[in-house]
Amino acid sequence: MTVALPQRLTLEQFLTLPYIEESPAWEFVQGEVSQKPMPGGKHSRIQSRLAGVINGAVDSPYEALSELRCTVGGRSMVPDIAVLERSQIPVDQNGEIVSTGVNISPTWIIEILSPQQSQMKVTRKILHSLRHGGQLGWLIDPEERVVLVYRPDRLPEEWPENSELPVLPGLSLSLTVEQLFSWLQVNRR
């Protein structure tokens, strides 16, 4: 889709644009508006399986939401997976999750790199989330078969293939890098 935009917008102007929730979603970073790239098969497979595994954890205080708009610190981002504490999920008068996004950083932000996506833009999104209250970030690169783990109190770490990936406290989830990438195999039975 081609959309004519003014050179620079304010966050408030951006949030009123009628098409920002179209697929793929639009994001606002430092006055610049850009549309996320369309995910491919590897991205989609990892995103859906990972959200399912996180949401399937027993007695979890968290919920994984795909493509949820998070507006915080002057930016409006749409992480591939935003993991929020259930108590942070905004609800309407009926007790249902609101249709709009959230105005907080995800507790855990997960980004899956698409082939045409800038690793720098995705890294900046994770770092912004951590600077504004996030506790954990993962950058998953399906082509390189690498998971970089980001935490607010240390440098990013490349996670070894056979080691259990770090998750949020209170989340009963055991997953290695090797297991995560095994989801890419297509079983044709």
Q: What's this entry about, in short?
A:
The chain contains four helices and ten strands. With 189 residues, the chain is of the alpha+beta class.
Describe this structure in words.
21% of the residues lie in helices and 24% in strands. It is an alpha+beta fold. The radius of gyration is 17 Å and the shape is globular. The mean pLDDT is 92.
Q: Separation of termini? A: 38 Å
Number of helices: 4
Neighbour order of strands in the largest sheet: 3-6-7-8-9-10
Average pLDDT rating = 92
- Approximate helicity band: 10-25%
**What global shape is seen?**
globular
Taking pLDDT < 50 over at least 5 consecutive residues as the criterion, the unreliable ranges are: none
Classify the beta-strand content into a percent band. 15-25%
Structural class: alpha+beta
Integer-rounded radius of gyration: 17 Å
Topology as a string of helices (H) and strands (E): HEEHEEEEEHEEEH
**How does the major sheet shape up?**
6 strands, mixed
Number of E strands: 10
